[in-house]
Design goal:
seven-stranded mixed sheet, 11 strands, about 250 residues, alpha/beta, 6 helices
Length: about 250
């Protein structure tokens, strides 16, 4: 998937997805505050003085709502204009920049940079994975921390998985059914949504193309970007069965 394709999808699907994104995942039980606290602990274990953080592909800003209370300075980067608008509405005074994970440049560094909820799974191959890690890495201060939540690894993905959610709140019902299909290391996730409220029932589709990488490929991307590479395999409630990659910038 190219940058142009992801930009197109962010714009085409952004309004529909951003409208129900928070409700769907919060009712699913995603603990954004708990995850933000885990990130904070991991950062401070390596860099006790860390006081600034950048959240890359921050979505609607739910992690930043807690992170802004843990660090003196937080900022976000988000490609989708609709997601970015929702984040900015929640986070007055917090800069949420437009930008693609592979090539954004803010002109400053932070004590910590994180990218959560597996945005790196959109990278089409190791070249794009390297670009994303390098792009985030150049925003990390010397001796600072980079935390990336991978998508599934090559050896940990169940082909043909079917997922479903039904959420009811404030006179609205949202139903989501999704099926994942794997060809090689590429996974197509086709999701169908039904949203019913006082205005009627509408349907839309959201198809995501994700890619599977090995632990070695993630580690190599960190190393090439100038970081140590540590794979944290079972990190509490943050990952829902997935892992974290954490690196400290070596030129600190």
């Amino acid at each position: 998937m190219t940058i142009d394709q992801i930009t197109r999808d962010a714009n085409v699907y952004g309004d529909d997805i951003s409208e129900i994104y928070d409700l769907l995942y919060l009712r699913r039980g995603k603990d954004y505050a708990g995850e933000a606290d885990i990130v904070t602990s991991l950062v401070r274990e390596r860099v006790p003085h860390a006081d600034s953080l950048l959240d890359v592909a921050c979505g609607t800003g739910e992690h930043l709502r807690t992170l802004r209370t843990r660090f003196s300075l937080v900022e976000g980067v988000e490609l989708s204009a609709a997601m970015r608008a929702r984040a900015q509405a929640k986070l007055p005074g917090v800069a949420v920049h437009p930008g693609d994970i592979r090539d954004f440049r803010l002109g400053r560094v932070f004590d910590a940079v994180c990218s959560l909820y597996s945005t790196v799974g959109y990278m089409a191959g190791t070249e794009e994975l390297d670009a994303a890690v390098a792009s985030m890495g150049r925003h990390v201060a010397p001796g600072g921390v980079l935390i990336v939540e991978p998508w599934y690894f090559k050896d940990g993905f169940a082909d043909g998985h079917i997922g479903d959610d039904v959420v009811r709140e404030d006179g609205r019902t949202i139903a989501r059914v999704a099926r994942s299909s794997r060809v090689g290391d590429t996974v197509r996730v086709e999701a169908h949504y039904l949203v019913a409220d006082g205005a009627g029932v509408r349907h839309f589709e959201h198809t995501q193309v994700m890619n599977l990488f090995s632990r070695a490929e993630y580690a190599a991307a960190f190393e090439r970007a100038g970081f140590t590479a540590e794979c944290l395999e079972e990190t509490g409630p943050l990952l829902a069965g997935r892992s974290l990659f954490l690196g400290v910038r070596r030129d600190g």
